[in-house]
Write a structure and sequence with these properties.
By secondary structure, the protein is an alpha/beta fold. The chain has a single domain (6-285), classed as 2-enoyl-CoA Hydratase, Chain A, domain 1, CATH 3.90.226.10. It has helices at 30-45, 84-107, 122-130, 155-161, 163-170, 178-184, 196-208, 212-246, 251-273; strands at 6-11, 14-19, 51-56, 60-62, 112-116, 119-121, 133-137, 141-143, 176-177, 189-191. Helix 2 (84-107) packs antiparallel against helix 8 and helix 4 (155-161) packs across helix 5 (163-170). The radius of gyration is 19 Å and the shape is globular.
Length: 289
Amino acid sequence: MGYEMIAYEKTGPVVTLTLNRPDTINAINPQMTAELHGALDEADADGEVRAIILTGAGRGFSAGFDSARRPDGRSSLDATGVEVAEYIKRWWARDRDSVTELLHLWHLTKPVIAAVHGWVMGGGFWYALASDITIAADNSVFAQPEVRHVSNTTFLFAALAGWKAAHRYALTGDHFDAAEALRLGVINEVVPLAELLPRARALAERIARVPEPSVRLNKAVTCYGLLAMGLGAGMLMNVPFSSMAHASYNAQRAELIAAMQSGGLKAFLEARDGGFRPEPFGPKSAPKS
């Protein structure tokens, strides 16, 4: 199938999927989501493919889910004029789909290696968490800053890093760098940016040398075992609490929406994140001048 927001490249036994909206730092919108999961299924169904690399074009892996204005001029965060029940329903459907999409990676028969760099934010961070293996460039910065406009984290973070570590960053939206991500156990290794894709490729080809049934079944041992232990139930609990968070429109969010309406996304982000600077790690860690 043809893709507009995903680059699909098959070389030997490896498919590389590249999030390809570099002008938005690969912000994830519905079309990109549909293309990404279609591409994952296409690679999974190809008998010649043994591993999948997931990466991003431009200066970051992904800025997360797109919160810019919709075609009607309104942000999905804006509840103005929408019945409370309808607003909750919209977010329930989106958050239900979000959990299903993350767990889709676990149900694939081929391993997914996330090769991330630059900004790894929000939903982009979640895809990095859900991947089977995650390699990060040394310029990577991870965060869930969306919690600052009333949004949700993912249970995958606590499952990997432990609940105290997850709370440190999920309750603040603070940035953390690749070294901290490695310390927390949410990535496998850190490499120089120039070595990111070659390292991911080398690992994918090493996996491809192992007999296919062994890789497929041993991935299932881990993923299905974790689901059976209760991680799947934990992820299901993400749905009601995430939809409640998204639907919790209050005065603080109204101020942020007003900033977006008057000054666009840049003004929204400055109003949301400006008071949190300096961030603990990364490019925003220097005090504001």
